[in-house]
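Team,

Forwarding the record for the chain on the shared tracking sheet. I've put the sequence and predicted structure together so nobody has to dig through attachments.
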Amino acid sequence: QVQLVESGGGLVHSGGSLRLSCAASGTKNTITSMGWYRQPPGKERELVATITNGGRTNYADSVKGRFTVSRDAAKNTVALQMSSLKVEDTAVYYCNAGVNIVVNVEGAEVYREYWGQGTQVTVSS
């Protein structure tokens, strides 16, 4: 079981900035990647940004150049620095972690994803 807790959401005017943080706890298994997804009102959840253990990042086209994802692997935390926010960035933002879980004594693993409870980001015009 992995618990993810997001913080940093809030209300900001268009053009402003916010920093989201997420802390993972409750597991000794290997977290291979962490990242952020968001769900705008009335829409499906979509990828925002991810970062692997090797530091490789992936961003949605809509946020490239405006958002930066970073990770402290030793602390199992991930952050999302958001700037030049737009009204269309309004959404519930969810922290995500990909975890390799050891399932037998030989060390076989399965991959599972875990989600935080979400934090609301609202950008006003």
